[in-house]
Write the structure tokens for this entry.
Amino acid sequence: MSSSPLKPLLSLLLVDDHTIVREGLKRLIEPETNQWSIVEAGTGFQALECLRRQHFDLAIVDLSMPGMSGLDLTRRIKTEFPKVAVLILTMHSEEQYAIRALQAGADGYVTKDCAPTDLVAAVRKVAAGGAFLSTRLAERMVHQLNGKSVSPDLQLLTNREMEVLQRIVNGERLVDIAEELHLSIKTVSTHKRRIQEKLNVVTTAALVRFGLEHQLGRDVLGSNVGDN
Amino acid sequence: MTHPSHPAVEQMERLTHELRVHQIELETQNEELRRTQSDLAAARDRYLDLFEFAPVGYLTLDKDGVVLDCNLASARMLGLQRSALKGSRMSRFITPSDADRWYLYLRSVLQEESAQRIEIALRHGDQNDHWFGQIDSQRVIAPDQPVMLRMSLTDITRRMQADVERRIAAIDADEREGERQRVALQLHEDLGQRLSALKMDLSKLSSDPNKAGNGAQLDGMLASLDNAMSTVRRITMDLRPPMLDDLGLVAAIDWMVRDTAQRLGVPFTLSLCSEPEELGEHTRLGAYRFVQEAVTLLIHDTGGTHLHVGLSLSRDRFDLLLRARIQAWTGQDANVLSALGASILEHRARLLGGHLKIDEPRIHSGWIGIALSLPRVPAASAEPLSDAS
């Protein structure tokens, strides 16, 4: 652990198990120019020890660390030192990590390959009580959180019922469905009744609406619903 | 004119008649005895054939484990002439490493009324080479007779060797998986972090106003570095996604399905439950590899044009459902999914102790479904001691 002798405007705690990354980061954010003091910690336990000894405005935390993970450290900081802002700085660019980090209480999330200006902006904004996500990551998180997940009810349907439902949603008549699937009209009607029972849908119109809402229509199938 | 018969002649004629009747009766009885004797001989031959030439060994042992009687197959299996085998202790043919197990088995057979089974390593006579046999024994108690054991002996060496090979393959797979994890960790934690630090230094140099004419060169290096970091991340994720250990199975499947489907331009839907608390590392990894394999098969093998992956949790089950829509299947096989692909999934499902159901479309297009149901077990007993995917 080492500290800067300058009178700081911001007091930062840098938590990363890789010395080379800590050194690179210090050079990048120019603490002297910004009048920031930086204390380094190589593990989550060292970080907690530092937090008990002195006040910090912001903790910059890596996610992948031996012993206590960055997520666990974030939870501990937010529980024991709720006034300390937490900025996650990691190699993981996947939105699943970002969502979990924000759920753990992090105030910002940036990846190690981000532009230096982004990193400095993130430090300033999170330390000032704001939140920060890179534009690209924020977009992906919105897509994921608004992702069109299939209703769990739809999982109750068999493959054949899915096929019948999809054809109904596409506007095919029961008699045409029966001919196409080599079934009797009675069997197709039974499938339709079972689908309505399983989905708790009373009318055909409601059934079609349900199918369209869950991307079962022909038009929707042609598009990339996952990439929404 | 006829003379009345003389009494002596009449008596003689009657006696002759009776004798002829007796003769006929005796001949009939004799014929019956011959037939019975013939039947008995045939039955004896049949049972002798069944006993002597059976593909498994039959033995009768006394309570001390001494062979009283045996068939030819048992003599051949145990590597002795039948005459030499009779009177020998069965323990003579058990390998020393299994001697204690044999002793305990013999005791349990003598104590129990039902048949008992053991799989044990045996020797051919006094030779050192060994083979594996399955022994089924039943205690027999007859009035005024000493206790005896009826025993059958079956050669299961091939099955045991196959089992050993399967275990070795499982250990080998475990080691390969461990190696992948180690390499992924080194890539991410060593190379990846060094590249990150290098990127920070290059970024610093790039933003330096005194960089003179090196700006374009530095920007090119930064772009190359970004590519290298991206490649490291991709290889790491392909080898063993750190997310599986960091965030759990559900998050890893969420990422993998989105990533795979988006890269291949396949529309997809996801329905994911929360992570079952009791999932251990083995199940988590096995289930992840199962979904990874199934997604690959559904998209590449069957040409699926829409993918759905669902995870659901009930009180006693954890269900994984993968569906793909096949637009127009023109394959020659009866099934959309290849036999090899189905076998791989079955193998992975078996290692996980789960139940697999593959639902093929019955016409040239439709939905194909792969459902894996895993029993939920308390966390303390969730992990098997061996076997891995």
